[in-house]
Amino acid sequence: MNEVEALEGLRKKAVKSTQMLQLRPLEYLVRAMLAGVFIGFAIIFTLKSINGFYLNESPVTTLVGGLTFGVALVLIVYGGAELFTGNTMYFTTSTMRGYTSKMDTFKVWTLCFIGNGLGGLAFALLFSQTGIIQELGMDNWLFAVSETKIHHTTWEIFTRAIFCNWMVCLAIFIPKNMKNELAQIMMMMILVAVFFASGFDHVIANMALFSLALVVPHPEAISFAGAIHNLIPALFGNIIGGALFMGMIYTWLNKSKLEVDQSDQEAATINIASKQKA
């Protein structure tokens, strides 16, 4: 599969999401919530996998954490969930090519973002009843990373978020050029590990992270206000990373090829219609 075919896959995904929102809005909201839930599962998997490494200050903590957190994108892609950050890329290329409108984009982005947040919060509220986080005490990786993200400056969060969704969207886009499904999954996990290990900010992952930290007894340094301080610049940074550096750039790079491909599709459609009339 080449870049044009990959972009066509993104376009079809955007159109499908638009149709789902128009015809079955509740289904769309639930699928968006599932993305938040799946990220919650990945955070807990990461927490339990690396907390011992973190407490012992092991140099492999970040690498192991990145590889384990990569399961989040696999769950989302293969579990049929709707992720806001991926939609920034899907809808940019689709709207630039005229298959979806700016209003379609706004509606999907808005409901998807809300659904992702609700899913992460619902997961956190239910998971808090297990006592698993509480058993780890106050000196655990989840609280440490939450506190770190809160104390970055607004500009630092914004720029980290740009790089984050640039890499996350690459983790969606590049595997579409691979034919082997196992290779696709491995590439997804490796590229997600790049953003995780680099310390970038993903607004949906951070919403789930802060939800998990705030719904259980936590250090005073972790607060709702601090979470908002992180999430707002992360949101806009993620949009730029996915829309500008992935959706716009790859659509522009393949503009001539996409126009030829679209013309061929239209000609084929007209030909089929003519034969049916005949």
From TrEMBL:
<dbReference type="InterPro" id="IPR024002">
    <property type="entry name" value="For/NO2_transpt_CS"/>
</dbReference>
<feature type="transmembrane region" description="Helical">
    <location>
        <begin position="67"/>
        <end position="85"/>
    </location>
</feature>
<comment type="similarity">
    <text>Belongs to the FNT transporter (TC 1.A.16) family.</text>
</comment>
<feature type="transmembrane region" description="Helical">
    <location>
        <begin position="186"/>
        <end position="211"/>
    </location>
</feature>
<feature type="transmembrane region" description="Helical">
    <location>
        <begin position="106"/>
        <end position="127"/>
    </location>
</feature>
<keyword id="KW-0812">Transmembrane</keyword>
<feature type="transmembrane region" description="Helical">
    <location>
        <begin position="28"/>
        <end position="47"/>
    </location>
</feature>
<feature type="transmembrane region" description="Helical">
    <location>
        <begin position="157"/>
        <end position="174"/>
    </location>
</feature>
<dbReference type="InterPro" id="IPR000292">
    <property type="entry name" value="For/NO2_transpt"/>
</dbReference>
<keyword id="KW-1133">Transmembrane helix</keyword>
<dbReference type="InterPro" id="IPR023271">
    <property type="entry name" value="Aquaporin-like"/>
</dbReference>
<feature type="transmembrane region" description="Helical">
    <location>
        <begin position="231"/>
        <end position="253"/>
    </location>
</feature>
<keyword id="KW-0472">Membrane</keyword>
<protein>
    <submittedName>
        <fullName>Formate/nitrite transporter family protein</fullName>
    </submittedName>
</protein>
<dbReference type="Pfam" id="PF01226">
    <property type="entry name" value="Form_Nir_trans"/>
</dbReference>
